TrEMBL record:
PROSITE patterns: GNAT. It comes from Streptomyces variegatus. Gene3D superfamilies: 3.40.630.30, ATP-grasp fold, A domain, ATP-grasp fold, B domain, NAD(P)-binding Rossmann-like Domain, Succinyl-CoA synthetase domains. SMART domains: CoA_binding (SM00881). This is CoA-binding protein. GO terms for molecular function: acetate-CoA ligase (ADP-forming) activity; acyltransferase activity, transferring groups other than amino-acyl groups; ATP binding.
Length: 898
């Protein structure tokens, strides 16, 4: 799918040095500006572009931008400061290879080596794909090394053929994983460069710092001064010359040096004006803590940032901080300075941010950098993930996101980053009330729980239900190795505490296996008499520190144990009083290779990290908190152990015919509609989705003839009425099952004619399906997330039981496996009832083809296959409904700013 500037849209994107350009389609009135671009090029670069230094060639090239779109010509320009600094264009030659276009590229002399040409080519490739172009061809001089390097580094398989002083390049435009990774690498480098003035500024100015206590701007200035910011610091206030000992100036333009970062804390109506002044002065990043901007003020703020190359955090935010030694930037109005540490934190809610900062400080984890995103006009969680990936300090990422700008790009980034460090988030907005509050709070679209959880599961993100759970899990992931699997042994000095811990583990989905005989014998030799070596292991109140330590050491080295949960209570037994038993956890002879966690029921805080001679051990006051953290750790280990999924290549797909069919239907139904049975079947055929045999009939006689032709060995058929807008056939009693013989078929058709004759346009005849498992497969096109594929138990009970799983398209092979195994009905598919498994490869193919159809066709608003009959020998869609809406395609991986 592609959305490109070829559609008339202006987009902004980052260059390799972190600066911003506007990419847009060339217009007829751009001729003079394009000619100026060429006229300012050196003779050497003119020769490389036109194979000569003739100015006549430049004039002819500039004149081409006036060609109409239907000429097969398209051009995109890069614009900065109102001047065109680059142009990329293609021309389809009808006389040459179908699906191919000749391309050319030019970048102003002073803009070389900043990625202008590569960025233009990426957007041109997206535009070309959207118009059916499969190959680019380009001619260059053999000494045009820079251009040849641009082609080679795109990430596409460029082929070269040398012919004297020229080289002919052919570039297939396949949307490969290598190409996407190349685009991501370029995007990450540009993103990180653009964030440097924001998170590592050498100079900061606070605009709107008040002289009297109580203002937000003054609070930010106070934190910058008391936090020990090592760069230059200024205040902007026309009524003061000094605030909190910081020199103040009447305006941004009066500052003695250009700040990298300007903190804006002025009334909403003045924000855009201050932003414009900052941009004109050369400021590279804005932090807007002001709130209450209306739509017009918001547009002006963002326009100023785009026009003048500034990244923006906020508005309506708590601020940002970077605890890096030698910088110590605290540009927040929080009550306390963030503690220095290794967790990267990005939140949309200032209140959540304060809670996380406090919790991480109490745990001793601290933060590497903290960003309160607020209304998130520009800088997002995706930006911060890429910063933390490269900053060399962050080993744990914590996110609180109430909305997503580009979920598929976020998902790709998260999948990459979470293989380096855990990414934890709060699953906010799980209920309708919560989603409504999130949308109101952030002025952004909230999304459904199922869609958001699909994103988290596919991206390997650990999702907690609340802030305490997030901190509990962070404590364990920060301090302990991941368990290899989910086998947990509970050890306790009190039977009741062990039972509570065992229940908590089982409820969290962890496995508490019985200990093998050899390990049982080994433990009995070291534990006091009366100890129980079932799981839980009850070491009794008589256990000594040395006995408990030896027990833990032997469990923590046994191959059948993945994690040990130690539940301890203080007793009156002399050997077990005070912190003596805790020493068995924290004073180990060597670092234990298994995951260790403690439950201290008398602990006065929910979670803390116990310092040990080999690291830290997380201790929880509640067994359920410990079990949840262990379960999250085990799930992360499972995710990391799986190879990255791949999107499987499918045979028998006719995307071109499918798109033509959709376009034709939407021309007849410009507002969108449900497909009629014949069009629906034709579309499914384009994607090789197996359907039951069927026939369309409009009369009683046609129904009888079709029934005779389609009846199965038992002679039974099904008759389904149809009229435009019919959605739930069963609810409307528009289905007759188990019909046998001409008389029953005629009677059924007459019944439809009597009840629905005024609206019915026809009916569908199908053979009665054999017995099997009735499943459901479908698609919902989310406005923000794109297509979501759903799968689960089907039939008439599908909505009542709601036994469904979901994953975002395009599905990989691992996504399909997760979809099939996640619903509660999954054991039936694998033959748990003794009937043998259903056609699992066929089921995988159905879901992959459904995913491909949804990915190819953004106009597909809904698809509902119910029931899908699953049998050992085949998978068949018995009924299918598809709704189309007029929608423009979007390329979620195209580099662009929000």
């Amino acid at each position: 799918m592609s959305v490109t500037p070829a559609s008339g849209e202006r987009v902004h994107a980052l260059l390799t040095d972190g600066t911003t350009v506007c990419v847009r389609p060339a217009r007829p009135d751009d001729q003079k500006a394009v000619l100026r671009l060429y006229s300012e090029m050196s003779d050497a670069n003119l020769r490389l572009r036109f194979f000569s230094v003739s100015r006549r060639s430049a004039e002819q090239a500039a004149a081409r931008v006036a060609q109409p779109e239907d000429s097969g010509y398209r051009a995109l320009v890069a614009e900065r400061g109102g001047r065109i600094i680059g142009i990329a264009e293609y021309q389809i030659d009808a006389g040459k290879t179908a699906g191919s276009a000749e391309i050319s590229l030019a970048v102003g002399d002073e803009r070389h080596h900043r990625g202008v040409g590569t960025l233009l080519l990426e957007h041109l490739i997206s535009a070309a794909r959207a118009h059916g172009i499969r190959t680019f061809a380009a001619d260059a001089l053999t000494d045009n090394h820079e251009m040849l390097k641009v082609f080679a580094d795109l990430g596409l398989r460029a082929e070269r053929r040398f012919d004297g002083p020229e080289v002919h390049c052919v570039i297939p435009l396949d949307d490969t994983e290598d190409y996407r990774r190349s685009v991501e690498r370029r995007g990450q480098a540009a993103d990180v460069a653009s964030l440097a003035p924001l998170l590592r500024p050498g100079c900061v100015a606070v605009v709107g710092a008040g002289r009297r206590p109580g203002s937000v701007g003054r609070a930010v200035l106070h934190n910058l001064t008391t936090g020990g910011f090592t760069g230059q610091l200024y205040a902007v206030n026309p009524a003061a010359t000094s605030i909190l000992g910081v020199r103040a100036y009447p305006g941004v333009s009066a500052l003695p040096m250009i700040p990298g970062l300007a903190v804006i804390a002025v009334p909403a109506e003045k924000v855009a004006q201050v932003a414009e002044e900052c941009g004109q002065f050369g400021v590279r990043a804005l932090l807007v803590v002001s709130s209450g901007l209306d739509a017009h003020q918001s547009r002006k703020l963002l326009a100023a940032c785009r026009e003048h190359d500034m990244r923006l955090v906020g508005p309506n935010c708590l601020g940002l901080a970077n605890t890096e030694e030698g910088l110590r930037l605290d540009a927040t109005f929080a009550a306390a300075h963030p503690a220095r540490g290794s967790a990267g934190v990005a939140v949309q809610s200032g209140g959540v941010g304060i809670a996380l900062l406090g919790g991480l400080e109490r745990l001793g984890i601290g933060v590497s950098s903290f960003v309160s995103l607020g209304d998130k006009y520009d800088v997002s969680g995706n930006d911060l993930l890429q910063w933390w990936e490269s900053d060399g300090r962050t080993d744990l990422a914590l996110l609180h996101l109430e909305s997503f700008g580009n979920p598929r790009a976020f998902s790709r980034t998260a999948r990459r980053v979470t293989r380096r460090m855990p990414i934890l988030t709060v699953d906010a907005g799980r209920t309708q009330a919560g989603r409504r509050a999130a949308a109101s709070h952030t002025a952004a679209a909230a999304t459904t729980t199922m869609t958001r959880r699909a994103l988290f599961a596919q991206a390997g993100i650990t999702a907690a239900r609340a802030i305490p759970e997030l901190l509990e899990t962070a404590a364990l992931l920060h301090s302990q190795p991941l368990p290899a699997a989910d086998r947990v042994v509970v050890v306790t000095n009190a039977g009741g505490a062990g039972v509570l811990a065992a229940d908590a583990c089982a409820e969290a989905g962890l496995n508490l296996p019985p200990l093998p005989p050899g390990l049982v014998d080994d433990l009995l030799t070291v534990l006091p008499p009366g100890a129980s070596t079932a799981n839980p292991v009850d070491a009794t109140a008589a256990v000594t520190e040395e006995q408990l330590r030896t027990c833990l050491d032997r469990l923590a080295t046994h191959e059948g144990v993945d994690a040990v949960l130690v539940a301890l209570v203080p007793t009156a037994v002399a050997a077990a009083t005070g912190d003596v038993l805790v020493n068995a956890l924290t004073h180990a002879p060597a670092r234990r290779s298994r995951t260790i966690a403690a439950v201290l029921l008398d602990q006065d805080v929910p979670v803390r990290l116990l310092p040990s001679n080999t690291g830290q051990v997380p201790a929880y006051a509640d067994p359920q908190a410990a079990a949840r953290a262990l379960a999250h750790a085990a799930e992360r280990a499972r995710w990391l152990a799986r190879p990255p999924g791949t999107v499987t290549a499918l045979e028998g797909i006719d995307t071109s015919r499918g798109r033509t069919l959709v376009d034709r239907f939407l021309k007849q139904h410009p507002d969108g509609a449900w497909l009629d049975p014949r069009t629906c079947a034709e579309l499914l055929d384009c994607y090789g989705i197996p359907q039951s045999q069927w026939a369309w009939v409009e009369t009683e006689d046609e129904a009888v003839w079709a029934a005779d032709r389609l009846k199965g060995p038992d002679g039974h058929v099904v008759l389904k009425a149809y009229w435009p807008g019919l959605v739930h056939k069963t609810a409307q009693h528009a289905v007759h099952l188990d019909l046998r013989g001409d008389a029953q078929v005629r009677a059924a058709f007459r019944d439809f004619d009597v009840r629905f004759g005024h609206i019915m346009t026809g009916a569908v005849v199908q053979p009665l399906a054999p017995r099997g498992i009735e499943l459901f497969a479908g698609v919902v096109q989310d406005e923000v997330f794109g297509p979501l594929v759903l799968f689960g138990l089907g039939g008439t009970a599908t909505e009542v039981l709601a036994d469904h799983a979901a994953r975002l398209a395009p599905l990989t092979d691992t996504d399909v496996h997760d979809l099939i195994t996640a619903p509660r009905c999954a054991p039936l598919l694998f033959g748990c009832d003794g009937t043998g498994p259903v056609d699992l490869p066929g089921l995988e193919q159905l879901l992959l083809r459904l995913s491909r159809m949804a990915s190819d066709l953004p106009q597909l608003a809904e698809a509902d296959f119910n029931p899908v009959l699953a049998r050992p020998e085949h998978i068949t869609a018995l009924d299918a409904r598809i709704r189309l809406l007029p929608r423009r395609a979007q390329d979620p991986y195209l580099r662009r700013l929000r």
